[in-house]
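Researcher: Following up on the earlier apo prediction. This time include the ligand. It's magnesium ion, with the SMILES given after the sequence.
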Amino acid sequence: MLTARDLSVNYGSKPVLRGVDLTAHPGQLTAIVGPNGSGKSTALKAVTGELPFIGDVRLSGMDVAHARPGDLASVRAVLPQFTPLAFPFTVLEVVRLGVSRGATFNCDQIVNEALHRVGLDGYQGRYFQELSGGEQQRVQLARVLVQVWQPVGDDGPRWLFLDEPVSSLDIGHQLQIMQVARTFADMGGGVIAVMHDLNLTAMFADKVVLFSNGGVVSQGTATEVFTDDMLMQAYGCRIAVSMAPSSGPFILPQTAALNI
Ligand SMILES: Nc1ncnc2c1ncn2[C@@H]1O[C@H](COP(=O)(O)OP(=O)(O)OP(=O)(O)O)[C@@H](O)[C@H]1O
Ligand SMILES: [Mg+2]
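Model: Understood. Below is the ligand-bound prediction.
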């Protein structure tokens, strides 16, 4: 389980996150949504131990503030929102970066399988910098998948933290990648994904956490969190939430109704 209690983060003297309480469970896909600048990436970096924070964060019982980087890396992998690469690495080299030192499994087989899962068969020898934005995003996802290949290890669940994993993808690849994340959770791992697409979120997430102004304003199922009023308050525009009989809520922005 992931629990964050009274989590606060300052950048210099500027408070960015204030008193955030957050829980996520293995076996579930938890989505973090909210407007630009509301603190989603900051929260993700804090709970993964990549940013100093005030408060208490436990990941599968591990005290994240005091955990050794190697111990954290063995239980959780992080896909950042931006992953620029300064050197001319091939796809194979980038994905191999996810393989932990001393790994006993057949590394190349798993790298190839990860590339297959993200729809990049045959890309091994291509240069990362010569790929399209969406292809690069899927290579980086393959890298983090390789890092926590087994959703459940001998010592418990593994975790995927994904900051906008489908932001550059076409609709077909959005569905493919969300299904990869969903399968990881169904096999017992934990997934926390920052999302902007509320419809994809409603389709795939077990739990939704809505951020606004550096705090959590609502958390629960998509049906509980996605209400016209709550979305209007958070995003400052009119958004109509309807229910599809088979697939739950769907969200339709109301054009020409901006309130910002
Ligand atoms: N390194 C930094 N130094 C100072 N302020 C920062 C830094 N990184 C982020 N911020 C500020 O912190 C706030 C939260 O940023 P964060 O990146 O967490 O937002 P976000 O919810 O992920 O937004 P987006 O949807 O645009 O990715 C913003 O006001 C941002 O300007
Ligand atoms: Mg962000």
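Model: The two ends are 37 Å apart (CA to CA).
Researcher: Noted. I'll compare it with the apo version next.
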